[in-house]
Structures are given as structure tokens and as C-alpha cells.
Design a protein that fits this description.
The complex is a heterodimer.
Chain A (H helix, E strand, L loop, with lengths): L2 E10 L2 E11 L4 E6 L5 H8 L10 E4 L2 E2 L5 H8 L1 E4 L11 H8 L6 H14 L1 H5 L10 H15 L3 E5 L7 H16 L3 E6 L2 H7 L2 E6 L2 E7 H6 L1 H7 L3
Parallel strand pairs in A: 3-8, 3-9, 6-7, 7-8
Antiparallel strand pairs in A: 1-2, 1-4, 4-5, 9-10
Chain B lengths: L2 H33 L6 H24 L7 H28 L7 H23 L4 E2 L8 E4 L2 E4 H23 L1 H11 L11 H26 L2 E2 L3 H16 L4 H21 L5 H15 L16
Antiparallel strand pairs in B: 1-4, 2-3
Helix pairs in contact in B: 1-5, 1-6, 1-7, 1-8, 1-9, 2-3, 2-4, 2-7, 2-8, 3-7, 5-6, 5-7, 6-7, 8-9, 9-10
Classes of the chains: A alpha/beta, B mainly alpha.
Chain lengths: 237, 310
Amino acid sequence: MLLEVENLRVSYGHIKALHGISFKVDEGEIVCIIGANGAGKSTTLRALSRMVDVEEGTKMLFNGKDMLKYKPEKVVSELGISHVPEGRRLFGNLTVLENLKLATFARKDKENIKKDMERMFSIFPRLEERRHQEAETLSGGEQQMLAVARAFMSAKKVMLLDEPSMGLAPKLMLSMFDSLAEISREGTTILLVEQNARLALKFARRGYVLEVGNLVLQGDSKDLLNNPEVKKAYLGG
Amino acid sequence: MSLMTFLLQNVLNALQWGSFYAIIALGYAMVYSILMLFNFAHGDIFMAGSYIGFGIATGLLYLVTSGIIAMPHWLILVLTIILSMFVTSFLGILVERIGYRPLRNAPRASAAITGLMIGIILETANLALLGAKRRGFPALITQKVYTIGGAFVTNRKILVVVVSIGLMLLLDQFVRKTKWGMAMRAMSYDFVVVPLMGVSIDIIAPLTFAIGSALAAAGGVLYGISYPVLNPYMGIIIGWKAFVAAILGGRGSIMGAALAGFLLGFIEIFVATVFPSTLRDLIAFSIVLVILTFRPYGFFGKPYSAKLRL
């Protein structure tokens, strides 16, 4: 198992965000966590990236290594886990190229950087066209492309994706997921959290359903798509 | 004296005087832009840099006069500037490590008083170590006076302006072209997600303090060469004025701070030529107040910051 999480607990002050959830992601998989707004999806990814503190009793293993021993920047540079954060969070004052280059700041495999950059430009040709433009000036779709490309440049073993569909028109959404599938095919493991359950379950092989801090359902995506409870709560009946 | 000569003379004076504000203001602006806090100890780091320069210059002069090593005076000057910048950068790193890092998630007010306390510590430590006696900065270059278009300018003034502007251009290149500069700019936009790039804030923050402190030290040495009497409190007023310049430039705008530093120099010098010098600061800062009324975010500041907690 590539990623094993057991009893993940997170609180913000007195508010409990995650009540001890457990899940696994295998190498090369695409796994999604679906749930409503405020269910704790983003918190789960932030915990994996070590951006929020977890509570006593939490176990997170990556390739058998205790993730709790890693600082946020080391999760990226040493474990190889990248994170596309909620709301993209690009550096708007940097150009497209600078955003991508900054992501390679701590990479040790300098010889592969050029190849990865070319690959991102072949998946997202728009980014190459706009490489000298400041990220602030990009359209929503282009910003999402840059957020994904930037994460890929920072680390590509695993990519954590926080709502890549957010704010995108349906057509852009679909092409974004095509691009993600392409990235996955070449060996990047993907853990995705999404409010758009239908889209996420069609894209992922397995899924988990998160409800106010607890994982209530899990299984193969096609089973979840046919599950009456999921249908009722997340797929509009 | 013709009007042109009069203007030229004051422009030259203002450039030199503004150089000090500008080079100190850069340190305030750099730290603010990445950590959203003002390092109120920065004026005292300028003072410390001046004393460190004094120590290095005195030491080098001693080695030369006692015949242990031979080097020309210009080399002593260059070495004094470079070594003071180097040594003082470690003081900046220390201030970040001891004073600010433990308080990174503390309320802003705690960080602000930390700066004030570190400032007082630096002043009183200086007093305790070196005593209250004022120190004379060694004259590393013999003063020469040149006339340009009827205006007088000394080689020391030229040195101050050339070195300050040179360092600012270097900083500009550093921030725009290197990956560390890129990380600093990224951090100024959104410091929360910087670690997701594999970049440690614990490298970029001390680096920023180090560079700001090195610049303040260069300012301190240049100041010592221009006004050779040092005392432990010399950084307070000039530090506050540079802070005003940093705000006037637009919080966090590095080049804005430098330009506002020069502007403040110009305002002070020109006010002093028209009014009695006792009224200088009164009038100069009233002008600044009026400017801020119309440009509350300074010249290059943005009305809001993109920074949010993740």
C-alpha cells in the first residue's frame, strides 16, 4: 500500500473537523473522496500535506514511512506528494514559467525538470503560449491548468487534488479531467476530493464518502454510483 | 548663486540623505512583504552594522599601521563595507531565529513589541559592552570636494549615493532573477502555500532578514563615513524615518520603499533650505501625513492583501 491513513483526527480549536477517518491508496490508483461542503475533504488533504496539525492517535504512512515526521516542504520534496490546494492559490505576481520553476526549487533530480516541463506544456499547450504572462491575468481554466502543472513540477509520485472542477464551465471541467487521466496514466497516483460526485466517481476507480468528519461509505466507484444513498444525497436522486 | 546651482546643490544633498532612508527602508519592506510584520529592531540593526563596520575598519587600520599587512585605504573601505554586511547579516538571522520565528503564529502585536524589545536589547547591549563613550568612525577616505555646475559635492557623498544605488540594483536583480528571489516574491503573495512548493519558509525568512540587515549595515558604514560620530541610539530616529518611507512606498513594495526613501530625503533637504532647520521634521512629516491622506496605501501598495490562511 502506498498511502495508509488510520484514525486521522483534526480539530480547529474546539471544532472537530475529522473524527478519526481511515483510508488507503494504492500505487497508481485514482481514488476520490466525495462529500458536501464542510465535510472535511480539504482538511483531509491538508493533513496529508502536514499543513494542519493532527491529533494524538493519528497514523499516516507513506511507503511505510511515518508521514508525521515530515515537515510540509519535505512531504513534497522527499516523499514526492504534491498538492493542488483549494482555490488554486497560484502566485499571481509570478509568471506562468516562474510558478512552474518555483515548484522545482527543492528538486534533486535536476536532469528531469526540463522533460517534466515539456510534458506539462504538451498536456496544457495554453500554458506554454502564456508562459511569460503573470498568473493573475490567466482565465479560470488556465489557472486550474497551471495549478495542476505546478503541483506536478513539485512532485509527481502522488498528487492530491482539491476540487479541480471548481469554477470551471462543464466543457473545461471535462477536458481538465482528461488531462488528469493522462497524468495518471504515466504513473502519478491521484487522490482527489470533489463536491461534484458524479464527475469524481466516473474518473476515479475507488471512492470514499465523507460526511461531517466521518467516512460513511467506501467502495468501487461504479458501486457507489449505483448506491441508492449516494444517489439520493450526492447525485441528485 | 544661480537658481540652477541652488537646485543642483540641494538635489545632490537630497540624493545622499535619501540614500540612507532608502537603504534602511528596503529592510523594513522586505521583511514586511514576506512575513507581514515590521521588524522594529531594524533601525538598531543599522546602528549595530555601523558599529561592526567601525570595529572592522579600526581593526584593519591597526593591522595596516602596525605593518602586519599592507593594503591601500580604498581596499580597507571596500573590505569594511563587505565584511560588515556579511557579519551583520548573521545578526539579522539571529533576530529572526530568536525573536520572530517562535512568534510566527502569535498575534501581530506580540511580534511588533518583540522588535521593539530586540531594539532596546541591541542598544543597551552596545552600551554595556562598549560604554557610553561616543566612537569616531575612522576616516577611510580623505575628503575631496568637487564642483559640478557650481554645486559642491564631496567624494564621500558620491560614495554614499553610488554604493546605495548599486546595492539596490543588485537587490532588484536578485529578487527578479534568482530562485530565492522568486521564492521571496511568491511568499509575499501567498506565504501559506509556499511549503507546498517544497520551499521551506525557515530558509526564506532568515534569508530575507540577512539581506535586509546586510543592506542596513552598508547604510551604517556609509553613515559612519559621512557623519563619523557613533552612539548606541543613532538608529532610532533614522530607523523610524525609514519605516515611514517603507509605509509611504506601499507596505511590502521593495522598490516603492527605496523611492519613498529618496523622496523623504528630498522633502527634508528642501524644507531645510527654505525654513529654519528646527522646523524641518515638523514640516517634512506634515507633508508626509498629507500624502498619506490622499494615498493611504502608499505609492505602490495594494488596497488588500491576497494572503489568507489555508
